[in-house]
Amino acid sequence: MTQMVPNSTNEIMVKKDTSTGPWLDAWRSFRKNKVALVGAGIVLFFLLLAILGPFIAPQGINDQSLKDRLLPPSSQYWFGTDDFGRDIFSRIIHGARISLWVGFSSVIGSVVVGSILGIIAGYYGKWIDTIISRIFDIMLAFPSILLAIAVVSVLGPSLQNALIAIAIINIPNFGRLIRSKVLSIKEEEYITSAKAIGMKDLRILFSHILPNSMAPVIVAGTLAIASAIIEAAALGFLGLGAQAPAPEWGKMLADARVVLRNAPWAMIFPGIAIMLTVLGFNLMGDGLRDALDPRMKN
Amino acid sequence: MTKREIILEVKDLQTSFFTDDGVIPSVDYVDFHVKEGEILGIVGESGCGKSVTSLSIMGLVPSPPGKITNGQILFRGKDLTKFSEKEMRKVRGNDIAMIFQEPMTSLNPLFTIGNQLMEAITLHKKGWSRKQVKARAIEMLKLVGLPRAEELMKDYPHQLSGGMRQRVMIAMALVCDPKVLIADEPTTALDVTIQAQILKLMRELNERLHTAVILITHDLGVVAETCERVVVMYAGKVVEEGTVDTIFNNPQHPYTKGLIASVPDMRFKKQRLYSIPGNVPKPGTIPNGCRFAARCESVFGRCTVENPSLYETSDNHKTRCFLYDEKGVGVNDKTAATS
Q1: Per mean pLDDT, which range of A9-13, A124-128, B289-293 is the poorest?
Q2: Angle at B116 (CA atoms; ends B41, B54), nearest 5 degrees
């Protein structure tokens, strides 16, 4: 509904009642996207699993029952058991916590470091931009998993180090994204007019440029969580991430390799868990991109 | 009217851009001044250095590649070109404020009007309470003629029309009572009816708050309606300066004459609209002699060789043209001078 408001100078001003701001607009458009909602639902489901894991899981992570080794899925063991007689269903539930923790915290780490470097490079330019950008280029020249393996082999294999490695390899992606965004935003007229009212550089950076460059970071961040989960699983699979007996999904895949012929469920269910979480984040990320990118609006 | 003091004086200002093709002076030895509470118009075609002049005053010339390479900008006798970045920040918004051409992009799309106005106030009024700041913001919105100021505080820029946004920009610029307001083509992006309202508002505010205004425009109509004095710029130089009446009734520089002749006149519909032949020379390819010589109807020998200076032809009227130099007009050029 619109209302017409005449003002003192007879200028007619049209104003919409649905006033809210850009973030709520984005939420409205996201809400209309069914596929993205499914993705968000999957993510939410795994988040709940991660939070409520210990209360939901029928058995503990390391509860072994040697007489129940390698049992197929049944009413007692929904996803079957592994070669130690541990309940795979319970382990997957606990594993959600590890995978999401790695996904979120490594991406948050790389977003924070990448943003700071990207902003400095983009806003100040000159030699500092050259140095930061070249470092990014060098990091991007390595295949990311190779770089992660190198980092882990220096720091020693553990879940925490895998997380740090994943955070490090993602820094240049976010750094370059933010840098390019800052480069375009700093030419906007509202930045010049902020300068013209006497605002400091730092304040312009954090109160004007940073919030305006966040949309693509949120999108890339969501998608990066998906790839971070895969990378964590890959490192776990290679024995460079989470160590036994942690119920990390990649590690579970690796352990199930030897019993693949007799007990395929030991591999299938962790695999499905990885696939579903990644799918969830990817669908959600795509939806966020459609909602946040003004060019995609129609 | 009592004699007013000069508040801002630009002396021999040269702002150059250092490009791959060499140093290009975009503003070349420009002189003018603004008195307290006066509205000064700066007129010229696109690319003649109007905007660079105003950015130079604000210390906002994009650097690199731009740099002030000569001259002084005196605000109340103090040279702004010597100021540090920190000192300049205090001047901006507080003493000299600026509004821009594009009201649609001059506000941050992510924040509410209130948010941005209040931020502008807190920048210079340290120690004000939130309540004071908010009251001031609402007062400013009312001052620029915006209705429902309280509600407007919660609105986002995209919910306002161009005219409303330009009013918000004016409110934001005037929030700390600056002594000089630079308006860089403030009405160019607006349609004509809104344009007239914004100009009227600026005149009213000028009378009420005694803020001196430098109005940069390419629209002679805007100048005639609003300004007291006019500076005409061409290719980085001031070519004519005078009061609005003298400039419009007795334009002296052939360029000013051409500009005035190119304004459409409703009374003579059938006539073909006059246009000055040729284009503004690109910075960097400026010919010897008078910069307007190549397009001038009254050109004569001396014009392509020597550089004319700004000749004072009467009180408050200066022209950069050899036609007004005592020894300037040759025998063959009498007709041109008198026509």
Answers
A1: A9-13
A2: 25
Smallest Cα–Cα separation from A253: which of A235, A268, A231, A263? A268
Does residue B77 form part of some domain?
A: yes
User: pTM of the predicted model, to two decimals?
Assistant: 0.77
Cβ atoms A85, A57 nearer than 8 A: no
Does the interface ipTM go beyond 0.90? no
- Of the three residues B151, B177, B203, the one that is the final residue of a domain is B177
Query: What pLDDT does residue B214 have?
Result: 93
Residues in chain A with CB shorter than 8 Å from the CB of B160 are: 13, 15
The closest of B23, B28, B51 to B235, measured between CA atoms, is B28
Buried b (16+ CB within 10 A) or exposed e, B56-81: bbbbbbeeeebebeebbbbbeeeebb
Residue B31 belongs to domain with CATH number: 3.40.50.300
Question: How many Cβ atoms sit within 10 Å of the Cβ of residue B26?
Answer: 22
Could you give the number of structural domains in chain B? 2
Domain boundaries, chain A: 33-296
Tell me A279's DSSP state: H
Chain A residues interacting with chain B (CB cutoff of 8 angstroms)? 5-9, 11, 13-16, 19-22, 188-190, 192-200, 207-208, 211-212
The boundaries of the domain holding residue B130 are 104-177
Residues 47-86 of B with CB under 8 A from A: 58, 60
Question: What CATH class has A33-296?
Answer: mainly alpha
What are the structure tokens assigned to B287, written together? 């010919």
Q: For chain A, how far is it from start to end, CA to CA, in angstroms?
A: 20
The tokens describing A281, both together, are: 């984040």
Tell whether B82 and B167 lie within a shared domain. Answer: no
